[in-house]
Structures are given as C-alpha cells and as structure tokens.
Amino acid sequence: MKHIVWLLKWVLKASIFFTLFAFALNNQQDVTINFFFGTQWRAPMVLVVLAAFSIGLIAGVLAMLPRWWKHRKAAARARGFSSAQSPSTFNPNQPHGL
To answer: Is the pTM of this model over 0.90?
Structure first.
C-alpha cells in the first residue's frame, strides 16, 4: 500500500511538472512590460509570469511573518517557556498534555 501511495505522489508530481513545462513551451513569445519614464522590459511571457508569481510569493511570505512570529511567541509563552529558554529543551517534570 505504501508503494502505491509513493507511486501516485510521483505520478502527480510528474504530471504537474510536465503541465508547467508544456505551458512554458507554449508561451515563448516576447512581451513588453512598460515601466515608468519610458523604461521597457522585453522577455518571454513565461519569464514574466514566473517573475510575477515569485514577487507574489515573496510578498505573501513577508506579509505573513509578523503574525507567524507573534503566534510562535504566544505559543512559547503558553507552554511556559521564557524567551531565553529554547522550546526544544525537555523537562520530564513538566506536564506534556498527554
């Protein structure tokens, strides 16, 4: 059963890869991006789409970081750890929730 699931995961990954590869091959036409003050960027469409995706991904991660840090700090406080103590330290006398 594990082998079938592993095989299905790889088939899914391969199908996604080949779909994106076909998308890249079908979108090799040059496009022009016009910036301010007459500046232009000419590149294949697939690079423009990849750049837009990358910029969106980076913006999303940067927007998520402050909230993630706040939740991480609150979770550490809820577990009884101070900021100087690492959450990976193990205390056998502390209740563990099981």
So the answer is: no
